[in-house]
Amino acid sequence: MIRAFTLEWLKLKHYRIFWVLFGIYLLAQLVITNGGMFFLEWLRDLGADFDGIDPTIIPIYDFPDIWQNTSYLGSFGKILIAFIVIISVNNDISYNTMRQNIIDGVSKKEFILSKFSLVLFLAFVCTALLFISGLVTGFIYSSVTDIKYILDGLEFVFAYFYQLVVFSMLAFLVGLVIKKAGFAIVLLFFYSSFLEPIATAILQHADPIKDQTEWLAKFFPVYSINNLIHVPFLRYFFQEIQDTILWHEWLIATAWLGIFTYLIVFILNKKDLKA
Amino acid sequence: MSSVLKIRKLTKHFGKITAVSQLDLTVESGQVYGILGPNGSGKTTTLGMILEVVAPSSGDFEWFDGMDNVKARQQIGSILETPCFYSYLTAVQNLRIVAHIKNCGTGNIDNILRKVNLYERRNDKFKTYSLGMKQRLSIAAALLSNPPVLILDEPTNGLDPEGIAEVRDLIKQIAADGKTIIMASHLLDEVQKVCTHFCILRKGEKLHEGSVNDILGETNVVEISAKDLDGLISHIESYVGMEKVTNENGSLFVQLKDGHSSEDLNQFCFDKGISLRKLLQQSRSLEQEFLKILKEND
After folding, report:
1. Are B71 and A105 a contacting pair at CB < 8 A?
2. pTM for this entry
């Protein structure tokens, strides 16, 4: 695994596009997940109020709620991480270096591992930043700082990591099947941001069919990834919230991870790599 | 001699087309082995299969008497058609990746870049290189780990005459170090010049296999001429070692019987008072043999 990661690292460490995209992602994640108080202050200054309540007293950064709030917001940017994975896979296809790597002495398994290690690396760095910045923000704003509350919602932080991994493996698969990076990126973005959300929304909310079809939505790949972390902010209005991730939600996302990985292995093993 | 590569009944179908059919080959250590054949005869497909980028339909192969294929490939330097590198990386950065894959350390990089004349440009990105420079970087990558086996696919394709001469010299130099070279080529002349052994493929089938010297060697035909050609003919016809004689362009081509050499013929003419002004033992060319073999198999 270390050999596989080093291979990927040598390819990326002098690649400017990689650092630009990764930097933008980390910065965006930091702002989106930790700039909430500034956002609420801005709302207040605009004169918004929620039934006469000053928005800035909404405890979005209280432990343990902070973990679900930040991981939910952070996950909106995961498409950028997917871009990095697609670009990395497509470089090796378009430069024909995947073939060259194998000829030089890399097994197909090791090649897949090298991309998987990139996925794990990206997800780990993003998650570590989410965790550390969450701790800092939490200690600034939270009314409770007992260790018990801090540790309470950490499964959402892990779910954030898991979302990034599963979604990135989907990106790996798309990058492998669609050989043009630009097209692969557009397709993944269009599918994950519009096509599937619209399809699942119809299944769940279209009056004539929703009673029969609502249950189907949770089996869709992107929906199941996103569904690990539900929209958390409803708790401030209706008190109707997700306090834990259900086992079947983990299971469906894991099944998709298995399917993506299987297809990647299958395609690479079957394919003749022509010059 | 230990075997470097053993191929057994290797076959590849692309849909209805059979690119390689039941191919058996053995390459021994130290050979310079040429895989010869017209375009589309299955040379590149064969190399692709033994390097595991093309999946065989059936049959198998074995490197170094059964070494793990991935480990074996790390011992092999390969130059296949177009050079494949990361365009956004420099020569040094690209070679570091190769060194990592080959498990060979980066100590040799500067050295090898000097050898292929890229040292001055080592910190420029690959995308700024000319085709010749890209090809030289391929050679550098293949030689980086000082591999005992080299695989070349049409090594002089697309090179200018100077580049062709350079690559041929390099091949001979490497072969002189005792390394094994497997090369595919459709250039007969190239194989004749550098190879010790060869096989001929056509439509994926092996028509012939053998050593270059065996097939080339000298023939038992001697070309002679003298001032008085008619006198020479009448004498030669009485020579006991003569099998057949033909007259072409002012020279006689004498086919000798077994046990008679060009030396005997010379002595015979001398005894008859004729001094030859030309005495040349005919050698075969791979081209003649190649055409003959193709004809025999039609």
Report:
1. yes
2. 0.84
